[in-house]
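User: Run a structure prediction on this.
Assistant: Running it now.
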Amino acid sequence: MSATPHVTEDVLGLQQDHAGGGARATQAKPKLCLQDLSLHYKAVAGERLLALDKINLQVSAGEFLCIVGPSGCGKSTLLYLIAGLHEPSSGKVLMDGKVVERTGTDRIMIFQEHGLFPWLTVEENVEFGMKMKGIKKAQRREQTHEYLKMVHLQKFQKSYIHQLSGGMRQRVAIARALATEPDVLLMDEPFAALDAQTRDLLHDELERIWAKTGRTIVFVTHNVREAVRLGDRVAVFTFRPGRVKREYKINLPRPRHLEDTAVAGTARDILNDLREEIDKSLQAEYEGGKQR
């Protein structure tokens, strides 16, 4: 692991950690530990593309970590590695000190496309993961009702997915993930497709659920203000290959709101740091278009 970062700046409740990719260890055994994690892809003409390069991050139990970066920096790929859906080219993911080698119900992903089953009711969708785990029906129903109540959808338990709004569907996805009682929620831009008003409401819901359940959350987003609104810490990724450029500890009181002056100011500081990487992404996209 890289050395503990030195905190050099504290502005608007924001601490900037300069570490080239190392996170401050806040406890002896973090919930998640990414050690020199790298991933190569096979590209065209047999070339190998370095997608992620020596990622070192620690995530404490109960922490809300947000990851931001330009398109193509490997943010979503990182979640797949943590989930055990991809195998790293080098380095490792540790969960409670044990190497992650496959998928597991202790790590659940929630996507922008919620992946609900349209032929099942809301209740049956939430029960699905528990059913696969062999949990008895009575216990499944009890837990399903508990989590539907948590996301304020108990009145819609017999509804089908097509009868729900986009925000309601995403709340079903969150309830389904929580019902399997994972230690870690991996969230890949879950609110990106929603309108601003619905997204704001779901920010409040997610923060409330996180505070109540104590789950560890790793949240990927393109929206810097969303990251500051939700996160305990924000990790900024470089453009390809993805590296941790900098980490920011968000020391703003909760609850927060997107329109808060401190949230906007902190997001602006992080966005200024991210701008160079966004420019690189846009340049690569432009050059790729010219080649086509």
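Residues 1-13, 15-27 have pLDDT under 50 and may be disordered.
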